[in-house]
């Protein structure tokens, strides 16, 4: 969990926090989560699904929570959720969510295997399963995997495109 107050230097002409400044804080928070899991130096391999749902204003407090959803071989998916706290109005609202992929590196700078994640709760299980599907999508988009080989993704796309029996006369 990371907290930071939004100061004038972080904002645009409307007094809203600039997206790049928020992404910088999210990257730092995700790196801490990844490095705590891997006990290694970790680098950002990719960032996807960034949603700016609500502007964060000067004077508000940004709260960023990072969680490793799943570890693969040398890479892991870190989910970031962002809230804004308004101290004067005593409000707390969800502003942003993103998925970062980090890779653990050894002393020579080469990718190195990391411990796996054992999901316990239903929520952790859902995050764990979702992470495999999102990984397929990002590797296909990055040109690192053929759609034909992305088994779960192909099945999901086919089931989404196949009419259910309710739709057939
Ligand atoms: C990320 C990096 C280490 C990957 O190196 P590489 O030589 O391609 O290594 P590999 O092919 O062995 O891939 C390593 C892992 O990264 C994953 N990966 C690589 N590119 C990825 C991408 N675009 N999206 C998601 N995962 C990716 C691979 O799937 C693999 O995961 P796995 O071991 O869990 O199966 C390398 O590209 C790098 O150092 N990039 C710069 C990182 C950096 O400086 N980040 C700061 C932001 S500028």
Helical content class: 25-40%
CATH class identity of the largest domain: Alpha Beta
Unique ligands: coenzyme A
CATH architecture label of the largest domain: Roll
Number of strands: 5
What gyration radius follows from the Cα positions, in whole Å?
A: 19 Å
What number of domains?
2
H/E element sequence: EHEEEEHH
* Strand residue percentage: 25-35%
- Tell the overall outline: globular
Q: What layout of secondary structure does this protein have?
A:
Blueprint: E1 2-5, H1 19-38, E2 41-52, E3 61-71, E4 75-86, E5 91-105, H2 122-141, H3 151-161
Antiparallel strand pairs: 1-3, 2-5, 3-4, 4-5
Bound molecules: coenzyme A.
Coenzyme A binds next to strand 2, strand 5 and helix 2.
Task: Give an overview of the whole structure.
This protein has 169 residues and is an alpha+beta fold. It folds into 2 domains: 1-116, Thiol Ester Dehydrase, Chain A (Roll), CATH 3.10.129.10; 118-161, no CATH class. 30% of the residues lie in helices and 32% in strands. It is built from 3 helices and 5 strands. The longest helix is centred in the N-terminal third of the chain and has 20 residues, at 19-38. It is globular and about 50 Å long. The model has no long low-confidence stretch (mean pLDDT 91). Coenzyme A binds next to strand 2, strand 5 and helix 2.
List keywords for this structure.
single chain; 169 residues; alpha+beta; Thiol Ester Dehydrase, Chain A; 2 domains; five-stranded antiparallel sheet; 5 strands; 32% strand; binds coenzyme A
């Amino acid at each position: 969990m990371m907290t930071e107050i939004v100061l004038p230097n972080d904002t645009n002409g409307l007094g809203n926090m600039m997206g790049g400044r928020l992404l910088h804080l999210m990257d730092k928070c995700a790196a801490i989560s990844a490095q705590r899991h891997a006990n290694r130096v970790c680098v950002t391999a990719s960032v996807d699904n960034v949603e700016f749902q609500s502007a964060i204003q000067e004077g508000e407090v940004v709260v960023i929570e990072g969680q490793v959803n799943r570890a693969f071989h040398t890479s892991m998916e870190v989910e970031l959720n962002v809230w804004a706290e308004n101290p004067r109005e005593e409000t707390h609202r969800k502003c942003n969510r993103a998925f970062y992929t980090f890779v653990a590196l050894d002393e020579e700078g080469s990718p190195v295997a990391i411990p796996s994640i054992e999901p316990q709760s239903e929520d952790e299980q859902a995050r764990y399963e979702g992470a495999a599907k999102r990984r397929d999508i990002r590797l296909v988009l990055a040109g690192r995997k053929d759609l034909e080989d992305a088994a779960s993704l192909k099945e999901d796309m086919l089931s989404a495109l196949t009419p259910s029996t309710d739709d057939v006369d």
